[in-house]
Amino acid sequence: MRYDLVIFDNDGVLVDSEPISNTILAAYLTELGHPTSYEDSLRDYMGAALHRVHDTVLERTGKRLPEDFDEVFHGRVFAAFERELQPMAGAVEVLEKLAADQVAYCLASSGSHERIRVGHRKTGLDEWFDEGRVFSSQDVGRGKPAPDLFLHAAERMGVSPDKCVVVEDSPLGVQAAVAAGMDVYGFTAMTPAERLRGAAQLFGELRALPDLLI
């Protein structure tokens, strides 16, 4: 293994949440008078913390989203997670392999700690991620594409950035990992490869990841 730490993004990498959350986000923004398609949401917000949604809407329209936007959005997303969220195909097999090989891993997500935990309880991934392995944009001042979250995760895990590899499926995440001085492997299950420029490797199935890390 050429890396001392594997840092996973969560949404769209470990849990199949991006179609759910972006469908809900697009519909909610449209409901509030900011017409947004599912494709718009993926393009503009996939991989980002919610503050990016607020900032983008304000910049484009001069209008602020309602004060309860985050609360309402999370309520709708969590309810949908409870109904339909699944782990990404191959996620458990990859975590089993890393654990068996005693390779350190964690996750660094733009989502809130509550969002991460709700998703992991529903999908059964909570058994693989104790509190010490979970890092959220809530923990740092700036979310992706800033490098802060990945640098925070590496520091807390006690690993130098140049010995970390990040597994990401969003352009913002790839930018953040590169800015942190880490290698990044781009997961193309939902994102076209050309949008993940800067990734050291590209792959389309999680089960292929362990062999790429050797």
What does it look like?
The chain has 214 residues and is of the alpha/beta class. It is built from nine helices and six strands. A six-stranded parallel β-sheet has the order 3-2-1-4-5-6, with helices on both faces. The N and C termini lie close together (5 Å).
Structure summary:
With 214 residues, the chain is α/β, with parallel strands linked by helices.
Provide key terms for this protein.
single chain, 214 residues, alpha/beta, six-stranded parallel sheet
Q: Give the low-confidence spans.
A: none
- Report the order of strands and helices: EHHHHHEHEHEHEEH
Q: Distance between the terminal alpha carbons, to the nearest Å? A: 5 Å
Helical fraction? 40-55%
Oligomer type: single chain
State the total count of DSSP E strands: 6
Radius of gyration: 16 Å
Shape: globular
Main beta sheet, described? Answer: 6 strands, parallel
Alpha-beta content class: alpha/beta
User: What average pLDDT do the residues reach?
Assistant: 96
Strand order of the largest sheet: 3-2-1-4-5-6
- Strand proportion, as a percent range, falls in 5-15%
Determine the number of helices (DSSP H or I, runs of at least 4 residues): 9
